[in-house]
């Protein structure tokens, strides 16, 4: 089939590479300009560079809503559009242009975790598996019929970076497998159960600020979700920002006020956590590694030279 590809960052790059390696013919690529947004500088392999290396025409757009783009698409005469990590709305006159419509590839197990940063949100929420879904695009974001979907398990120590590497390897089989089905003429696919749908926003600084009223189990997953190269989860100690790079749920149960720097346990320093921590039934978060506002990275047992005082959400 003749394919036009819409995509950005490493997800789009991996999708384009899969298409270039397949029997399909990539006739045009549309991608976003480079961005300074923290999350868009991560996994930033260039779709434009890859296309140009293979002699594929490239258009750079923030939004695909101008007449010149539409004219170029009609001229390219695609049988299908394939999109992955396209960051803005694609209007119906574009996604409905090819005879086979538009196949969108999304890194979640739809209908759950539509929208942005699905792996991070899924990890924070304690999901046991994540994956990649190829679905037909319609008027509602990430809501079209599912053509192919594959899942991988979330391990007990997995970080968001681990899950990225697990799921990015699913892009080729999911995308090409879906295209092969469509190329055979199949048009009936699995409808999404919209009662199970969830939609998540882009992540920002407020989303990585530690709230010590959360249970320790949730905070431990937040720290893993904000693994390098993502911005680290942070709190404040004595008015200065402190990043939490590694932590585990404490073995013991610790009561008191959330955020209290309380007790050395193993290789960590336990911080009281949970809205009902006063009951003494909660585990704490045993912080094991931190980074200071000045950029020094060190074990928590070296940073916290004495117990007492509080970690807070604001300076």
Automatic annotation (TrEMBL):
Gene3D superfamilies in the cross-refs: 3.40.50.12230
SUPFAM superfamilies in alphabetical order: FMT C-terminal domain-like (SSF50486), Formyltransferase (SSF53328)
EC number of this enzyme: 2.1.2.9
Keywords from the named record: Transferase
Molecular-function GO terms, alphabetical: methionyl-tRNA formyltransferase activity
Keyword Ribosomal protein among UniProt keywords: no
Start and end residues of each Formyl transferase N-terminal domain: 1-169
Residue ranges annotated for the Formyl transferase C-terminal domain, each copy included: 205-306
Protein name stated in the entry: Methionyl-tRNA formyltransferase
Organism, as annotated: Streptomyces iconiensis
């Amino acid at each position: 089939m003749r394919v036009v590809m819409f995509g950005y960052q490493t997800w789009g790059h991996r999708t384009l590479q899969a298409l270039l390696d397949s029997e399909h013919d990539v006739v045009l690529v549309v991608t976003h300009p480079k961005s300074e947004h923290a999350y868009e500088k991560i996994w930033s392999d260039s779709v434009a560079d890859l296309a140009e290396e293979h002699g594929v025409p490239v258009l750079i757009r923030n939004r695909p809503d101008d007449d010149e783009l539409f004219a170029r698409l009609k001229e390219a005469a695609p049988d299908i559009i394939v999109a992955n990590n396209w960051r803005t709305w694609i209007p119906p006159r574009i996604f409905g242009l090819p005879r086979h419509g538009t196949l969108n590839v999304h890194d979640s197990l739809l209908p759950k975790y539509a929208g942005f940063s699905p792996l991070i949100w899924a990890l924070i929420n304690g999901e046991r598996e994540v994956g990649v879904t190829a679905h037909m695009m319609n008027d509602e974001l990430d809501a079209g019929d599912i053509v192919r979907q594959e899942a991988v398990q979330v391990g007990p120590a997995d970080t968001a970076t681990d899950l990225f590497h697990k799921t990015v390897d699913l892009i080729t089989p999911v995308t090409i497998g879906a295209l092969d089905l469509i190329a055979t003429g199949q048009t009936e696919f699995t409808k999404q159960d919209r009662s199970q749908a969830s939609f998540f926003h882009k992540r920002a600084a407020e989303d990585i600020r530690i709230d010590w009223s959360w249970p320790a189990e949730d905070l431990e997953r937040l720290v893993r979700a904000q693994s390098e190269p993502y911005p680290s989860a942070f709190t404040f100690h004595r008015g200065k920002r402190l990043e939490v790079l590694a932590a585990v749920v404490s073995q013991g149960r610790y009561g008191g006020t959330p955020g209290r720097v309380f007790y050395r346990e193993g290789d960590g320093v336990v911080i009281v956590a949970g809205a009902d921590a006063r009951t003494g039934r909660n585990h704490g978060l045993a912080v094991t590694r931190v980074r200071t506002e000045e950029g020094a990275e060190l074990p928590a047992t070296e940073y916290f030279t004495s117990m007492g005082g509080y970690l807070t959400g604001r300076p």
